[in-house]
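Thread: uridine-diphosphate-N-acetylglucosamine complex, take 2
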Amino acid sequence: MKFLHVVGARPNFMKAAPVYRSLAERGHEQVLVHTGQHYDALMSDIFFKALEIPSPDESLNVGSGSHAQQTAAIMSRFEPVVRQHNPQIVLVYGDVNSTVAAALVCSKLGIRFAHVEAGLRSFDRTMPEEINRLVTDQLADFLFTPSADGDENLAHEGVAKEKVFFVGNVMIDTLIRFLPKADELFPRLKAELSLGSFGLVTLHRPSNVDDEATFLPMLQTLDSLSAELPMIFPVHPRTRQKWAARLEQCNPNLRVIDPLGYLEFLALQKNAKVVITDSGGIQEETTYLGTPCLTLRENTERPITVTAGTNLLIGRDWELLRTSFHEALSGGRKQSSRPPLWDGKASERIAEILA
Ligand code: UD1
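Output below.
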């Protein structure tokens, strides 16, 4: 069979990699399309090498823009490419603009497509990703869910259950595969960054970093907490562009660095005392690794990381951030368990179902 994968933004790459590999092992023909939603080398190129997947067959080079501009550019450039390759099934991943753009094109052309990481809901329609998830799931022909809450959400939205498959978490497939390599490189990274005990911070959501009234008190709290525990803060280009001057004024213990590669970031997540983030994927990775995770959001589309895992929703309660941070440092956070089917075999299940 012929499959075509669409990726575009950083969190897509670690989800597509294991599915690509599982389909390759079964001898299927595959085309990899990169929309160019993320284009900086540190946000894109380095992942293909680290994740051991081939370079894209097609690059659409759409770049940044408003949501409408970016989504429209992906759609108009993707349409001729998917027609030319004429795959039997297209695979889209996660909840970024590249996901929904490709989903719309496929459904209008009558090309069947599969959504990997279907069914997740934050129930917050002010999040652009929630809109992307809702639309993509309404249109998909195959919906692969990472956790049982996904199946329930899809049932409530009237998605036919024959289309829905609970397969587990493909991002955890990648984590399991590459954890030994991350462990291997950690001593070198530790020396390079002169690390003792440390925390890890990532922030890039528009709702956190675009608005001064939210971002500055958040940064101030992190700045003061870093006096107790040095924190590594690999900065997304969006955050860097907006706050370069402010970031430079921070306590040197809040160590603002460029985005890291997959293995380096995984090694830091595993060894950090605490992770503070607004990312979706990091909530899942820390749950698997058992590292305490404090999420600077009011809600999550990945509730299993709270009910089973190490994740705690902090919202914008800076006092709660302080107390939870101290709790994490003293080892007082709850025990976590790994969610069902987060076992490194999700992509094999997907390949079996699609074939
Ligand atoms: C996108 C996803 C988000 C995901 C995140 C992971 C959507 C709606 N959002 O957000 O769900 O969590 O990726 O990183 O799809 N920029 C660069 N270089 C790049 C990419 C972006 O400088 O390689 C800058 C541009 O100024 C751009 C801004 O970052 O306008 C935001 O990029 P964009 O792709 O629009 O969204 P993200 O915030 O990265």
